[in-house]
Structure formats: C-alpha cells, structure tokens
Design brief:
The chain has 612 residues and is α/β, with parallel strands linked by helices. The chain folds into 3 domains: 178 residues, no CATH class; 156 residues, Rossmann fold; 229 residues, Vaccinia Virus protein VP39 (Rossmann fold, 3-Layer(aba) Sandwich). 31% of the residues lie in helices and 20% in strands. The chain has 21 helices and 23 strands. The strands form 4 sheets. It has a 7-stranded mixed sheet with strand order 18-17-16-19-20-23-22, sandwiched between helices. Strands 2-1-3-4-5-6 form a 6-stranded parallel sheet, with helices on one face. A hairpin with a 5-residue loop joins strand 14 and strand 15. Helix 13 crosses helix 14. It is elongated. The structure holds zinc ion (ZN). Zinc ion (ZN) binds next to loops.
Length: 612
Amino acid sequence: MNGSILLIPSIRRKGGLGHLVRMMRLALSWKGQASIFLEPGNPVHWNEAEVRSFFPNFPWDRFLERSPDSRTWDWVIFDRQSTSLEEYGRLHFGVPTLGLDEGGEARLVCSFLVDTFPRIEKDVEPNRAEPRFAPMIDPSALDTPSSDASLHTDTSRRIRPFLLAFGGEDPYRLSELAFDGLVTSGVSPEDIDVLLGPARTHPFKKYCGRILTGGWDARNHFSQYQWVVTSFGLTPYEAILEGSTPLLVNPTQYHERLSKRAGFFSLGVRRVSRRRVRFALAHPETVLPSWVQGGQLSLEKGSSFGEFLSSIKADIPPQCPLCEGRDHRVIYRFHDRSFFQCRGCGTEYRMYFGGHKKEYTSEYFFEEYRQQYGKTYVEDFSQIKEQGKKRLSFLRRCLSNQSSFDLKGKTLLDVGCAFGPFLDAAREEGMIPFGIDLSAVAIRYVQETLGVPATVADIETFDPSVSFGVHSFDVISLWYVIEHLPWAGLVLEKIRDMLGRGGWLIFSTPNGKGISSLRSHKSFREQSPIDHVTIWNVTQAKNVLRKSGFRVFAVRTPSHHPERFPSLVRFLMGERGCRAMETIFHLGDTFEVYAQKIDHDSRSGASSGPRH
Ligand SMILES: [Zn+2]
C-alpha cells in the first residue's frame, strides 16, 4: 500500500531540525501521496516562512499541506519528539497514527510506535525498535554500503580529518566548544572543518579549516571526513551510513545516556575530554558502535522506512469496535498488533497491521482446526453438539421462572453456525433453527446433510426476511464469534432489532480476566489469535450489553480447568475448590452470556440516537 500519508514533524525552536529533515526525506522517497503539515499559530514553533528559508531548495509547494482535515489519509506520522494528548486529539484526523520516537503522552494512544533511537524510560514498549530507520535515508540514495566496518578505518578515501556538525541550529554553540576542545587536545585548527546549519543565528569566528553551510542534504558532506563531531540525534547515524566515524559532544546528560545506549563514543557533556580524544584517534576501530559490525544499520533493499510503512496496514479504524469511542490507552504493543482498552466502555481491542484478512474457507475448518484441536470440525461434531444441548438446558433453566417461554416451537438463529452442531441440538429440542456462516462449505453441509435452513451471509449485511422469510427470532446465538467482529457494537444493535419481544442473546467468548490471562496477562494477549478483534470479560460484557439494550441474566463457565491454577492454590483449594472459584469469580478461560432483550421503553442508560 502506497497511499496518502500526512507527516507532522517537530518544528520546535531549539529542538533541532533533524525530525523535519527526515520527514522531508520520507516525503521525497514515498511512492504515494505524502504531505507535510507545519501546524501554524504556535510561537514556540518555527513558522512556515522560516522553515522554507532554512531549506530553500526543497520543493515545498509539492509537499506542504495547509488544511489536513479536508482530506482523508491512510496514515498520520508523528515525528515530533513529544505529543500531548490534547495535541494528539487535534492532529490524528481519525486515521491510524504512527509515532516515531514519540516520547510524550501520545505514546499511549498512537496506533503503532516505532523507536529508532534508544529509550532511557522503561515505559511503553514500541511495536518496533529499528535503529536502521533513524536517518530515514532511502537505500537507493546511498553510494556505498554501510555495514562494512573496514570502510570506517580505511582512511585513504577520506579527504579531510574532522567535520564539526551540530545540526541545523546549534543553540548551545557546541561547534565552538568542540573546536576549542579538539585544538587543546593537539588537533591542528586547519584540520577541522565546520558545517553550519541553516537555523544558526551567529557566525563561526574562529580560525579553522573550511566553513560549510548545510541544507537538508548536509549529510552528503560526511563521506569526505574520517571523523564527524556531533551530538546525539540523526547526525551520528548519518555519519555511519556515509562511512565516517562519529564522535559525540552532548548538550545534556540525557543525550549522553542515549548516546551510550546507542553505542556511540562520547567526548563529554558540554566539554571535550582530551584523554578521550587521544584514545579515539589512537584506536579508531574501537569507537564505532558494536552494531555497525553486526550490520544492524545496513540499508539493503527493502529496508527503508518507506518500504516498511507500505507493508503495514491497519485492519480496523482506530476506534472501539463496541462503542466506536476513540479515547483509548495502549495495553501492549507487539510486532504486528497493538492492544488498547476503550476508556468509554472498558472493552479491550486490538489493531492488527499484518495486512491480510482471514478467510473462513474449508481450510479453516479442516486444516487450521485440526492443527489447533487435533481433529477436524466434522469429527468434533458430536462433542460440540453435546455442548449445545448443555447450553440449551441452561437456557431452559434461565427461563424456568418465565412460564410463558418454552423452547419448543421457538425460532433460533445461530450466527457463525459452521457445520451446524448447535442447530442440530436445537432442532432435537423442538426449536426451529436457522444458520448463517461465511463458509460456503459449512453451509452446504448444514443444508444438504442436516436439512436445516442456512445461508452464506455476513451478520453485518444479513437480512432474515430475504434469506428465510422470517422477520425476527426468539433466540440468537453466537458461539465464539463476537470476538471476531470488527463492528461488534453495530452487530449487537442489529441483533436486538432481529429479536422478538423478550428474546434471548446467548454467546460465548474467551475471557480476558480468566485464569490463563491472570497468570500471564501479556502472553495471553500475545497468543490471542490474530483474528480476535476484541477481548471480553464479564464486567465489561454486562456494561456493554446494558448499553445495547440487554440484561445479562446469567453467566456460565462452560468448562473447568483446575490444572491451570497455580500449584499452591490447587494444593490449598483442591480441584473442587478451583472449579468453584472458576464459577463464582468468573475465572474460566471462556464464558457464556445469557442475556435478555429489554423492552425499548424500559431501556435505561442506553445510547440514544443513531450511531452513524
Ligand atoms: Zn468502547
């Protein structure tokens, strides 16, 4: 996918121009439509005229976007160091967001996070930590491969020894400081060239080698130098890509710690250690980060950020599948998924970035099912049917105090009926069953072998009067289906509309607060199948169903696994005790919900008005 991307770089004064520069590079190399947004109206930011004056050769008119809310974007990329929730709310434009080295509150809410720099804070893990993306250079723009360490120590191709390059702005005048430090360490002033960035306001007055002025492509100078003296940021990464060796003089202890973590060699914080200069000059091969030899920064074909970005695609919009709220906080980030919790209704959901959509074909029921459960779905039919009978007898017990309701003669729609074991069980109870499923193979089996009315349909677009000539049902069931639905909230509304007065919604789903999740919260989510969009728990289910016009009548724990409890608990409570705990505290790894439709008039706290 090479669609439309909106790039929002940091343009904070004294914040350096590196973030802006790499977004300019991304814009140039992006194969789709890339636009750069310089948010106006903030006095601590550079304004558009200033930014343009720093880089007059860049084709701004092709890339500047002034009204980003008038277009739709596939991604919004934040490369702005630190973004508050308030700023995020203003700048996400309702589409998936990618935070690059995001260090602010937006770290908790961005759809996807890529860290190219190391982080000191141990807070939210990124989806990817990729130092190779730091300078955001398209590999095709490089003359030389970079992973070969001999490039750095072979001085014959270096024309000049030292270049001082302290970014576009150099607000701390580190150029002067580093120059003095090198000279007092014995380096000849003529051997030191100075690169002055476009936002630097004061001239460099010391007697030195050449003075160069750098634009957004200043890194092109680096290949001529053996040493590039700089501070932590994009420049040391660029220097390595261009085959020279960075030496760092940092403005703060914070930058110093980042440098160390990234493996760069530092001469000091706002000072130059003579001892360290002499060491570096005597042992140039040892002052390169160890990962240069490991080839981590090597930019082979397919390793540019742009190509990475075109390979990831969010499968759902960044909003809650149940209540459609956008206020969420991240729970975990994995390579291909981010898990969020909705702050509105408490539902956990994940965004998946792998790009492909699962198809429930015959392979799903035969091969994948066999791999997961050791037998095919059809081979499992009688066992699932027995489970179905238990569910129906539980439903009958729920109804026992409602004499007007008997299962006999009642209509039932099973959503995601697969090969129909529950339909078969319902028919044996005297019910009138109907089934829908996405799989044509499964539906053919239900129609031809079981002789039960069934049709291939997606619940979101299904019309019972067209498919079955039926306008409403007494019972609608979804066994392990609801967690797959990207628009579960709309489906609940639809189910409510399809149920007759006092009708029942019954479903089962994995339990996000069950014993396995309690034992390992993170790995439970990491191992959750990629096509599970939502993770439910009993409290959240009751809350969501109440808002959707249902009352949860009972929650059932369908299977017991005392062996999943910690051994001490098992020892103290015994097997029966563990089973009781599963039932009482809803600790089962799955749970079933038996909920009854509330009459519209008596619905309390339900959302009013249309959702769309
Ligand atoms: Zn929600």
